[in-house]
Amino acid sequence: MDTAFKTRRTANIDFSKMYDLLKVGLPAGFGLMVNVAFWGMILFGLVGRFGTEALAATSA
């Protein structure tokens, strides 16, 4: 299969590019996760004051 289609030639992994992507992507992903979790806690806290029915309706 490799001799016909040269599939292994294109499977090179450039670890320096991978590291550059992770340097940007991991902090951005962590920041997004913290932001979503923070707003989720605030919204559940606010909606929770309206009662259990409203809380159940928002967490379907």
UniProtKB/TrEMBL annotation:
Keyword flag Transmembrane helix: yes
- Segments traversing the membrane: 21-47
Q: Which keywords fit this entry according to its UniProt record?
A: Membrane, Transmembrane, Transmembrane helix
Report the protein name in the record: MATE family efflux transporter
- Native source species: marine sediment metagenome
| Classification lineage | unclassified sequences, metagenomes, ecological metagenomes
